[in-house]
Design a protein that fits this description.
Organism: Mesorhizobium cantuariense
Protein name: Autotransporter domain-containing protein
Oligomer: single chain
Largest sheet: 6 strands, antiparallel
Strand content: over 45%
InterPro entries: Autotransporte_beta_dom_sf
Number of strands: 8
Order of helices and strands: EEEEEEEE
Number of helices: 0
Length: 111
């Protein structure tokens, strides 16, 4: 069972955004963030009971996160003077027992 006094805590730096002006009104925006996640409770067991079915209690065991984890986010967005944009992003979580990362790409137009 999870207690509200054991929610994860995060220490992170301010989001670092940097705009770089390019030719013809284009712009490159770089963004990054790093954080340290502290999980106070790594016990991932949940007990459930169906109230309308007496005696139907069961426990679900989940994957246990590490106590400490590094969280990283980075992105780059190119915006042309005519409104076309392209963006690439990365998100990652790294700890002693977890390596999770993902990427995304977007292309579009603003008017």
């Amino acid at each position: 069972m999870h207690d509200l006094d054991r929610l994860p805590g995060y220490f992170n730096d301010p989001v670092a955004d940097r705009d770089i002006a390019l030719r013809d009104g284009a712009k490159l925006t770089l963004s990054g963030r790093a954080a340290w996640a502290i999980n106070g409770s790594t016990d991932c067991k949940v007990t459930a009971t169906f109230q309308s079915l007496p005696g139907a209690t069961f426990t679900i065991d989940g994957a246990e996160p590490d106590t400490n984890a590094a969280l990283l986010n980075a992105s780059a967005t190119y915006t042309s003077g005519s409104g076309l944009f392209a963006s690439l992003g990365f998100q990652g979580e790294f700890s002693g027992n977890v390596q999770s990362y993902a990427g995304k790409a977007k292309v579009g137009i603003s008017w």
